[in-house]
């Protein structure tokens, strides 16, 4: 469709939308929304309005029933198309335009990751859902959905459980994979689960929160719909809640999926906030920089700790580490999986890993000895975090410490860990 007055002030050297995907991720994070630049300000404005004036051009005043979507799924909403911010708003549209380019399929944003997962369930209405361990909050949401729908919940890793006496996982059902998985940061073969789902006519949905672009592109390996808690790496600064659903354009009737979910969201009321959308755009400018650094640092820390624990080094640093840690867990240590893992996580293995402590007491105390790691839940921010996981998740062992690596220099983080282990050991 022609959009002559979308943006009269757009500089003529703006990247044409059709050429956008030829640019690198780093460049798209900065420029994929240039087409929405309306004023001369380089940093996008924060629009806080909940309601928007209708046009005074009477020919353009269309009652809501006639308002057939006049834009591409995932494309920019024009300034004069906003009506009410539960439906669409300028910052939200800018965020979704950027995410659509970055994730590689039309995106919808939500008030939280959990709200996005809920929207996914409401949209797909599965009768059977296969799900593994992983983020405990999603299991809570699924139980709510089960209360309303009576759906069967089966074990992702036990195909024999996918079939009961008078039901089986099939057409339109949902195979939900979280990878890399919370809290361990270990990864699963996406293509394998895509094949299992598609053989039965089910959808493969992937919670890719732990490995945003450029680490992993689940669409390349058969995923139908991708979800993210945007609260984590997309936000990246520990200051915004947000959820994201992205639709693979190779899914049949992908546009129908998009518009149905768009309309559902109006009535779920789980729209992302204006402020959060604005923060999200700020965040995406540096997504590639942050995530690449965080993931590389995590890999170096994991390698260092793993070698201290398993190697023969009897130096004081290794001895201190060994007195506190029995093992570390991270996708980079899955040596037997590297044939598919290198393909599926070409950009790095993710910034989250787990330290298994020698005792629950050590796990509880280690965070208090660290200076650079905050003792807090969540992940994905520029600040390194460590969490004695028992504080927020009753389903994991009380010796588990989850680490989220920030953008600090990894050598400083290593020194902090060594110092803390020595302090705790003595
Ligand atoms: C945090 C998280 C969620 C939930 O996201 P919220 O934004 O907190 O609602 C879902 N899945 C994973 C893997 C997460 O880490």
Quick recap:
By secondary structure, the chain is α/β, with parallel strands linked by helices. It has 12 helices and 12 strands.
Report on this structure:
The chain contains 12 helices and 12 strands. The protein has 426 residues and is α/β, with parallel strands linked by helices. It has a 7-stranded mixed sheet with strand order 1-7-6-5-4-2-3. α3 (113-124) packs parallel to α4 (136-149), α8 runs parallel beside α12 and α9 packs across α12. It is globular and about 80 Å long. The model has no long low-confidence stretch (mean pLDDT 94). Bound molecules: pyridoxal-5'-phosphate. Pyridoxal-5'-phosphate (PLP) binds at residues 112-114, 135, 137-138, 178, 182, 207, 209-210, 229, 231-232, 241, 243.
List the helices and strands and how they pair.
Elements: H1 25-31, H2 90-103, E1 107-110, H3 113-124, E2 128-131, H4 136-149, E3 152-155, E4 174-178, H5 190-199, E5 203-207, E6 225-229, E7 243-247, H6 254-268, H7 274-284, H8 287-310, H9 316-324, E8 325-329, H10 338-344, E9 352-357, H11 360-369, E10 374-375, E11 385-388, E12 400-404, H12 410-425
Helix pairs in contact: 1-2, 2-7, 3-4, 3-6, 8-9, 8-12, 9-12, 11-12
This protein binds pyridoxal-5'-phosphate (PLP).
Pyridoxal-5'-phosphate binds next to α3 and α4.
């Amino acid at each position: 469709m022609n959009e002559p007055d979308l943006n009269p002030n757009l500089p003529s050297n703006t990247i044409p939308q059709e050429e956008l995907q030829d640019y690198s991720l780093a460049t798209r994070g900065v420029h994929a929304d240039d087409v929405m630049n309306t004023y001369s300000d380089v940093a996008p404005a924060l629009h806080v309005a909940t309601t928007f004036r209708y046009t005074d051009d009477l020919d353009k005043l269309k009652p809501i029933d006639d308002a057939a979507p006049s834009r591409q799924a995932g494309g920019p909403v024009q300034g004069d198309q906003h009506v009410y911010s539960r439906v669409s708003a300028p910052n939200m549209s800018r965020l979704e335009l950027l995410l659509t380019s970055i994730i590689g399929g039309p995106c919808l944003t939500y008030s939280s990751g959990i709200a996005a997962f809920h929207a996914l369930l409401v949209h797909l209405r599965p009768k059977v859902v296969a799900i593994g361990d992983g983020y405990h909050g999603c299991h809570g949401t699924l139980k709510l959905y089960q209360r309303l729908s009576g759906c069967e919940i089966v074990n992702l890793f036990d195909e024999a459980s996918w079939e009961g006496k008078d039901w089986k996982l099939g057409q339109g059902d949902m195979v939900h994979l979280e990878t890399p998985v919370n809290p361990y940061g270990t990864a699963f073969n996406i293509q394998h689960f895509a094949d299992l789902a598609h053989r039965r006519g089910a959808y493969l949905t992937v919670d890719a929160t732990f490995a945003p672009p450029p680490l992993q592109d689940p669409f390349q390996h058969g995923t139908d719909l991708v979800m993210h808690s945007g609260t984590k790496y997309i936000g990246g600064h520990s200051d915004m809640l947000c959820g994201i659903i992205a639709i693979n354009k190779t899914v049949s009737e992908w546009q129908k999926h998009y518009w149905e979910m768009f309309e559902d969201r109006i009535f779920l009321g789980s729209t992302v906030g204006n402020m959060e959308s604005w923060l999200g755009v700020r965040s995406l400018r540096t997504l590639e920089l942050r995530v690449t650094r965080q993931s590389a640092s995590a890999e170096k820390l994991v390698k260092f700790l793993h070698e201290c624990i398993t190697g023969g080094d009897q130096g004081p640093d290794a001895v201190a580490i060994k007195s506190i840690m029995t093992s570390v867990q991270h996708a980079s240590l899955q040596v037997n999986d590297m044939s598919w893992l290198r393909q599926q996580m070409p950009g790095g293995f993710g910034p989250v890993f787990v330290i298994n402590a020698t005792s629950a007491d050590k796990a509880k105390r280690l965070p208090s000895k660290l200076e650079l790691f905050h003792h807090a839940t969540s992940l994905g921010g520029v600040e390194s975090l460590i969490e004695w996981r028992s504080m927020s998740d009753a389903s994991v062992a009380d010796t588990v410490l989850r680490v989220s690596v920030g953008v600090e220099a990894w050598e400083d983080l290593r020194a902090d860990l060594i110092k803390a282990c020595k302090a705790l050991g003595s």
